[in-house]
Amino acid sequence: PARASRLWRFGRWLIGASIGGFLIAQGDKLVLSGLVEAETLGVFAIAALWVEAGRQVLMKIASFVFVPSFSMVLRDRAEDIGPVFRRALGLFGLACIAVTTLTAVVAVLAISHLYDVRYSEAGAMALVLSFRNLTLGFVVVEHFLLARADSRAVAIAKLAGGMLAVVCMIIAHSLFGLTGAIVVAACSGVPSAAVMLGYQDVRRHMDARMGWFCLFCATAACVGVAAHLFPN
Description:
It is a single chain. With 232 residues, the chain is mainly alpha-helical. It is 83% helix and 0% strand. α1 (2-32) runs parallel beside α6. The relative contact order is 0.15.
């Protein structure tokens, strides 16, 4: 009974984390389906589809590597978790940069060659949306918390981040049109990552200020690229 109770306490928060994760990953389509015309939504969906391919590669790597690795280190040599966590964060961050760059190039080339002129804007949208994959580097923090059985912290961060992303997307669309909504969609993972970086367990093992700085730089770069591609 005690083991079942611990399992339930851990698992019930994963439901909230899953809802938050859905809002972060799919909230853009949910919101835009009610705000833009079907043709525009179709163009956006094509751009998002190509970017999602890179995201799925990164998520598969993270899910198969980090939770088992962190759990093993915490069980066998807990004193080494700090260096292991920081090394994983750095290496996966580099992988995210590489995959983001590759995804953007492949998406732009594929869309320009495989689709007709009606979908020409999908290439520019994919270029902006590809910044979403940069923030996936902080999924390492999420898996670190899960390895420590702190599913509550993950659920709170992802629910707060997901709801904030949806609200901000609606506001951005009303103020800046489709371009604003695309930028928010590309930065949808930033709020939850920022919240998780603020947790004491995380700050004990890494410099959260550097993490927040990286999130700021990614967001600023995304806004700059969008402003260049969609000047109106």
